[in-house]
Amino acid sequence: MQLSCFCLPAIQTPLVNKFYQANRVRGRATKQDAVWVVKNSSLIAACRLQAIEQETFLSTVFVDQAYRGKGVAKQLLQAAIEQESCVYTFAYQEVVPLYTKLNFIVIDEKELSNKLRQMFESYTKQGREIIAMCFQGNVHA
What we know:
- The protein is α+β, with helices and mostly antiparallel strands.
- It has four helices and seven strands, in the order βαβββαβαβαβ.
- The chain is globular, with a radius of gyration of 15 Å.
């Protein structure tokens, strides 16, 4: 299966929002986000890197049902975080093992910046079973 993984140009942000909407995914990409996608003949996976205060936050990770369990999420996330020095995310409990394999570590929400901590608390109050995680990558010189 020939897949293409890349950062979507900002002008094409509406395409990923249509993909999210068609799959009933929470969240909307903005032109300020770095939106990473995987395409076969059409979009099959997407995620967003958002600037939240001085932090990079990975959100809205979604893989089309037909492509799950085939390494698509791993490929997408590796490409998205490859050049980042530090990325935070809130992972649903069932996907924590995937993030752990990508060198994310579980952190206490008290370690989050104020804005990220507020977001985390808001999401958990909504009943989302999430875990705060952080990726400490290598800074490329």
